[in-house]
Write a sequence for this structure.
């Protein structure tokens, strides 16, 4: 099965970084080359598409919360839901990532999310009150290392695959 991943962030370089790191999961990229490519992407001298090609999972991109909600709706309506959504919190001028997750979970409570943010707009206790105790929403601080992103992705995609097989 080819999994679908949605990256939601208002910064294009973050999208390129996610794409490159996730693509490197399927390729044997040496740590030195990976670090060099990440530097090139962040400097804007290379895009993720130029750095890698070919995936066993598809990565889609949204830059605002409303756009993400529309894409999540369409994915579920076409019976090809996202296995995982990486969600930034601050995405002005529209709704923030937390509100986006709240709205999406009203329709799709089984949707897997990873909140990725460099800011502490929401305390953990506040998120717990909003979403309760569940294993469908995880948190990852930015900046993150490539190993953390790969490990988080592998964990969630494996969990989703096992639930589909049972």
């Amino acid at each position: 099965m080819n999994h679908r991943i949605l990256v939601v962030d208002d910064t294009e370089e973050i999208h390129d970084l996610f794409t490159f790191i996730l693509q490197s999961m399927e390729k044997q990229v040496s740590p030195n080359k990976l670090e060099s490519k990440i530097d090139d992407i962040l400097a804007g001298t290379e895009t993720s598409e130029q750095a890698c090609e070919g995936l066993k999972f598809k990565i889609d991109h949204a830059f605002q919360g409303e756009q993400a909600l529309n894409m999540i709706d369409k994915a579920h309506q076409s019976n090809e839901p996202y296995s995982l959504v990486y969600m930034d919190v601050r995405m002005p001028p529209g709704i923030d990532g937390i509100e986006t997750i709240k709205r999406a979970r009203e329709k799709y409570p089984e949707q897997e999310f990873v909140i990725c943010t460099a800011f502490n707009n929401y305390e953990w206790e506040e998120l717990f009150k909003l979403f309760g105790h569940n294993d469908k929403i995880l948190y990852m601080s930015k900046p993150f290392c490539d190993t953390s992103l790969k490990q988080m992705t592998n964990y969630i995609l494996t969990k989703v695959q096992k639930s589909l097989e049972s």
Remarks:
- The CA atoms of residues 50 and 96 lie 30 Å apart.
- The mean pLDDT is 83.
- The helical segments are 12-24, 31-43, 48-51, 65-77, 97-107, 124-131, 146-165.
